[in-house]
Amino acid sequence: MSIDLNTLSPRELGNLITTARKRQALLAKRSPIGQVRSKLTKLAKAEGYTIEELFGGAGAAAAPRKAPTVARAGRKLGKVAPKYRNPENPKETWAGRGKQPRWLAAYTAKGRDLGEFVIPGAAKLTPGKSKPAAKKRVIKKSGK
Fold first, then answer.
1. Per-position DSSP letters for 105-142, written without gaps between them
2. Can you give the residue ranges of every domain in the chain?
3. Whole-angstrom distance between the N-terminal and C-terminal Cα of the chain?
4. pLDDT in tens, 53-107
5. pLDDT in tens, 50-63
6. What's the pTM value of the predicted model, to 2 decimals?
């Protein structure tokens, strides 16, 4: 952090100095990190624990934390009316997007057809989720 002191007004400069002195006093009161670590280790040992048990392996040298990854913004999709409803709990519905909910996956695993759960008046079945219809074959008769 760099601050251009030449651009600050006297009031801003005074506030900055006050804030810096407060921070300096706070840091002066703190014990060195090695001293705090040894106190924590002794306390944990007295209670029958290790630092690794308490903090998940963050013992003598804590690993630096990675910055959280930000998910890339994908295409925003609007809300869709539900197409499927759980017969045992009508509040549980599914619009046919994303992964099947557990209740529907359990029913389909038992051999029930996805079409049994369609809400009347809702849109058509989600493509690829139901059993495909058998192809019709046309047999031509030879005309003599």
1. HHHHHTT--GGGGBPTTSPPPPTTTSPPPPPP---PPP
2. 31-58, 84-117
3. 95
4. 888 865 445 555 666 676 666 777 778 889 999 999 989 999 988 899 999 999 9
5. 888 888 865 445 55
6. 0.35
